[in-house]
Amino acid sequence: MKRVDDFRLQLGKNELVPIIIGGMGVDISTAELALEAARLGGIGHISDALVHDVSDRRFDTEFVKEKTKFYKHNIDNSDKSIIQFDLGKLAEATRLHVGRTMDAKRGNGLVFLNCMEKLTMNGPRETLQVRLNSALDAGIDGITLSAGLHLGSFGLMAEHKRFRDAKLGIIVSSVRALQLFLRKTARLNRLPDFVIIEGPLAGGHLGFGMDWAQYDLATIVGEVAQFLKTEQLNIPLVAAGGIFTGTDAVNFLNNGAAAVQVATRFTIANECGLPDKVKQEYFKASEDDIIVNGVSPTG
């Protein structure tokens, strides 16, 4: 019987262990977790969600304190529409978080940034452009576009010198979502380097409604693979969502997936950013403890 280590993910010139640790925001996917994945030859994600707070904790900066002081007059106001993120400080925090992580990287694996489109920060286009380009400035190996369709995100990076060099991919949950993305980015003559297909059992912000149980990851992966074959597009597919064991992973790798993305499985790792008490609750949890809600801004 085959094992995960019998497979390899070919991403450009890089031959990698076909395991990607998914991007879990607010520093749950810590730099340490991503770096360990890279050291072992796979791919790890860091996230830029709450990057100012992450920078303050990692590097003793004072981004949050300064912003709170500046908007002190509005703290008790439920209307936060006047609050804007300083783009210069956003760039600085992103470069610190990404740059220091890349400086510490060892091994033949890669470190990617998970970038959520729907993290609007009261300035969707401007802040997204700064986040993406600052990560490229800081030397990130690749960027995974998540939590949204990202129809304009490639365009926001198109003038960057690393736009065609860094590994850029997108998370989708259907053929239609991928078709829309490819159509909107066609003028740039730049295909994604990988496509992550999230099924309904993935954690986080998904593109499913409350009818999620009617969908199946294996079916969606097959549909996307057939679409790419018909269009004669050679883009590695990564299966994600509900993959918990080596057998789960091998089943997808045997059936057309180039790699698997796993996140929840790694929340109990020493390197993960969850507090130890929370990790213990994960150990105790059963299937009955899983909650599906419809409040995600991307669903």
Radius of gyration: 19 Å
DSSP helix fraction: 25-40%
Terminal residue distance: 38 Å
Report the CATH topology name.
Answer: TIM Barrel
Runs in which pLDDT lies below 50 for 5 or more consecutive residues are none
Coarse structural class: alpha/beta
Under CATH, the homologous superfamily reads: Aldolase class I
CATH architecture: Alpha-Beta Barrel
Order of helix and strand elements from N to C terminus: EEEHEHHHEHEHEHEHEHEH
- How does the major sheet shape up? 8 strands, parallel, barrel
Q: How many independent structural domains?
A: 1
Average the pLDDT over all residues and give the rounded result.
92
- Compute the number of helices: 10
In terms of DSSP E residues, the strand content is 15-25%
What's the overall geometry? globular
The CATH class designation is Alpha Beta
How many beta-strand segments? 10
Side by side, the strands of the main sheet go 3-4-5-6-7-8-9-10
How is this structure best described in words?
With 299 residues, the protein is an alpha/beta fold. It has a single domain, classed as Aldolase class I (TIM Barrel, Alpha-Beta Barrel), CATH 3.20.20.70. The protein has 10 helices and 10 strands. The strands form 2 sheets. Strands 3-4-5-6-7-8-9-10 form an 8-stranded parallel beta barrel, surrounded by 6 helices. Helix 6 links the parallel strand 6 and strand 7. Helix 2 packs across helix 4 and helix 4 runs parallel beside helix 5. It is globular, with a radius of gyration of 19 Å. The mean pLDDT is 92.
